[in-house]
Amino acid sequence: MKNAAATLVALLSVLPLRAGGAGTSGVNFLKSGVGARSLAMAGAAVSTVDDANAIYWNPARLARINDTSVTATYASLFEDQSQGFLGAATPWGGLGVVGLGVNYLTVKDIEKRAGDTETADSTFKDQEYSASVSFARKGVLWDALDLGANAKMIHQSLDTYKENAYAVDLGATYLLTEKMTAGLTVQNLGSKLGSDSLPVLIKAGGDWRLFQDKLTVALDGSAWVTDSDTPETPELNFGWPNPGPSGRIPVRTGPRPSGRIVQTRRGRWGFSSALSPRLRLPPPETWAIPTASPSAQSLNSYTLSCSQGLFSGFPIPGRAPGHISMWTTKR
After folding, report:
1. Gap between the Cα atoms of 307 and 322, Å rounded
2. 301: how many CB neighbours lie within 10 A of its CB?
3. In this structure, are residues 276 and 40 in contact, taking their beta carbons and an 8 Å threshold?
4. Which of 72, 153, 218, 234 is deepest in the core (most CB within 10 A)?
């Protein structure tokens, strides 16, 4: 256990504390995160995400998905600004797990003026999205090592301006012990979007499952490498989910000869929350715990995730019942 903990700490220590250079980064919606559960845990998800949201957080985590997983997230960021994520992943024979995901941002009703007038001449939208194709495989080289990757196209449309970029995400997870997992991911390695570099993320972390897996504690460290004159502030993200009420919903299927139900199966439902302190790491001369501005807007995020049984004729005889997870967070 001590060796595993030391390995996890060493993994976190390799993250760069500063990154700099010339230029700026574009499509900042890629930094917002997806999935209300992972957001509620301050983004400490590189080794804990267990559904199709892994397409965003760490594609290697897709390797442990045993049934089809579908997820949808909607987040209200600011006035007239919203973000969403749609993702699906499914095992592909014995080769691994494949996935598809779309992460998008829309800003509506941006006013356009030709002069200094009180009334806008017209309005337009800012539309940005990334579309990803994912593949992950477990037990690569060693049984404990999982690898995954995304290939994605990133598009930005701002009035008459339109640009595309292409990038890859790489991820890995390693089972340190039966109760500890470490993860590493590098995101948005690719071409420029016009004159802007993509925001490259390096993230490492791990989780520790306690009390017969009833409590999971996760710690991630992340740094954005943006090629900016002002480097992004590295973060340490720490969170643990709180299991909420759960239950079962009976679902009856099959023909009814003589009024008799041939098969009755049950789907599961559940609600959960999470706690997530977040510590930003500024330069040593300005160490302080930041506070939000009084005028800062709240973020409301809602996620619905479903597993295999809800599709292709729920429930499927001989397969596990479906599972629905609903998450919400506000910050």
Report:
1. 5
2. 26
3. yes
4. 218
The answer to whether the CB of 209 falls within 8 A of the CB of 241 is no
Instruction: List pLDDT tens digits, range 225-269.
Output: 865 544 566 677 766 665 544 444 444 444 444 444 344 444 444
Query: What count of Cα atoms within 13 Å lies in the side-chain half-sphere of residue 300?
Result: 4
Tracing tokens 């002002």 back to the chain, one arrives at 230
- Domain coordinates of the chain in residue numbers? 2-287+302-330
Residue with tokens 């997230």: 73
| Sign of the dihedral defined by the CA atoms of residues 135, 140, 144, 147, in that order | negative
Q: Give me 281's structure tokens.
A: 């790491």
Over residues 29-47, the pLDDT tens digits come to 888 888 877 877 778 889 9
C-alpha torsion sign, points 174, 15, 44, 76: negative
Q: Which amino acid is at 239?
A: G
Asked if residue 58 lies in contact with residue 171, where contact means CB atoms within 8 angstroms, the answer is: yes
Q: Which of 234, 218, 307, 290 is nearest to 37 (CA)?
A: 218
Read off the pTM: 0.71
Distance of CA 267 to the CA centre of its chain: 25
Task: Give the contacts of 14 (CB within 8 A, at least 6 positions apart).
Answer: 204
Find all residues with CB under 8 Å of 299, minimum gap 6, and list them. 39, 75, 76, 77, 329, 330, 331
What are the backbone angles phi and psi of residue 60, rounded to the nearest 5°? Answer: -65, -25
Phi-psi sector, 239: left (phi>0), alpha (psi -120 to 50), beta: beta
Q: What does the alpha-carbon distance between residue 104 and residue 82 come to, in Å, rounded to a whole number?
A: 8
* Length of the chain counted residue by residue: 331
